[in-house]
Input
Amino acid sequence: MKIAVAIPTFNRVEYLRKAVQSVLDQVHDHGVELYTVISNIASTDGTGDYLDQLNKDHENVIVYNQPEDNRKFPNPYFLASVIPDDIDWVWLMGDDDYLMQKNTVQDVSRLIRNHQQNELCLIHACQGGRSRSTRQVRVGEIFDLCNEFGYHEMLGWFSSIVLRRSEFVDSMNELKETHHYMRSDTLEGRSNYSAFAHSAAIYKQCVGKKSLFVDWPLVDPQDRKQTEKTAKRWAVENTPERYLFVADDLQRLKDLGLIKNKCSRLFFRYLTVNFWDLWLSYLMSLLIDKEKTEAELTSEKFLTEWNINLDRIMKVTELLDDPNDIKQLSYMHLNVKYMAGCLSNGKFFDRAALDAISEQIQTLIVPSYNFSFFAFE
Output
């Protein structure tokens, strides 16, 4: 069995060193060949020099190191282009994460062998800080596992995703044009590239096939909390708004007939809250952003896009199976629209409306779930 740990990287060479070392340190069965495949298309921090040397020192390290290609296509697309044809499985890993134990790849390779009869296409390798360490495994089709653990929880975090090579390459190739959408000046253009475009692409490839959810700690972030540098990077990449566009991803999957059944509330789980809690709190935070001028807040462009994004959230009511969840989300939507209207009419100086929005945001971010996954029943 040949397994490749695939890492797209950008300007995080010190993190990348630890990520790569955690792969090089792996101890595994003789029947397993392990490769490290890295794509670097924009770094300016010495990553290129590090990768050139790494490639010389290790024959099982494969590098795509073309920083000038950063305006052509996204990193995952180039990453998929250099995965050798004879690789069986690909572990997609973030450049600021790491494999927790020296036998992590061995554990995953044994899971693959033990479940070969299920025609597996995906394994969710649990994040260390979120695992309950029950060492239990859930086998199921991707929709059912998302409905039990969450769409984002199954498919959102790069480093938990282990895919058969064919599904990996096909899903990464689907991201080929998304890089251009991120640069769009129009809301319609930007909405084609969500913060989790890879999740929708992977979901498409795995529908109707068997996947695993594995509850033991296998991989973890190097930083448990978001750093200031990461926060700035997210702002540049418009990540907060792109979270909203997950609603469009899910609508497209439904329209394609790939989400055939109604979804539980858990399908929309994002860490400790629901996706719509995240979406609504983001939109409300824009209304009380002290860095925006009155002219910006009252401009036709801002208000039009803000209202389109607010209404975008309601797309998920078509997917929910519980009428009470639909009712609650509909009420929240109307309430936010009303408060925004009050604030707009008051030229964004209505103290009561400002305070009400701040209180709503604090309520929305109160955890609805434990950070760890639910125990298996």
Remarks:
- Residues 2-255 form a domain with the Spore Coat Polysaccharide Biosynthesis Protein SpsA; Chain A fold (CATH 3.90.550.10).
- The longest helix spans residues 323-345.
- The longest strand covers residues 210-221.
